[in-house]
Design a protein that fits this description.
single chain; mainly alpha; 8 helices
Amino acid sequence: MKSAIEKLDKTLANIERPIMFISGLLLFVLMTWCVITRYFFHISTPYQTELAQTFHIWLCFIGSSYLFSLNANPSVEIFSDKVMHSKNILFKKVYFTIVWLLNLVFIFPCLYYAILNIPKYTAQVTAYLGYSYIWVYGAGIVGFGLMLFRIFLRIAGFWSGLYLETYQDKTDEIKEVDSV
């Protein structure tokens, strides 16, 4: 079970990292090109906003899912630190499961309404380049879907004992720093 969770996590990361890199690179190249053309050649590029918006949205949503895999989501450290010091494994599993399930309060409604609005996204097109807004807001659907999957993957990891060692390692590091 642990190896399957780790493989799924690595597979998703191998998909997300290139998407983030390409989106970030295209955003950087686009903005550099727009600055050069505007200030040196006095040429305005009307499509820059549309493309920059698309690349930025993809970078944000896929990056958010990737941050979930690194456990880099916001949390209340004062409680998590106390739980990490606890010897009760069941308490740790329940606590971290609840913390991760709380993310669903935001993610699930966003995903639900994004899916409901797919017909609107496909019907609307951008002003200059004329591509469908599904290419823009599809990032939200993909990103929220990946986040939802990662939440359940992380919870399965807690219950299989995969991530509890990570939290225990952090506890040991804190003890070492405190003793120095």
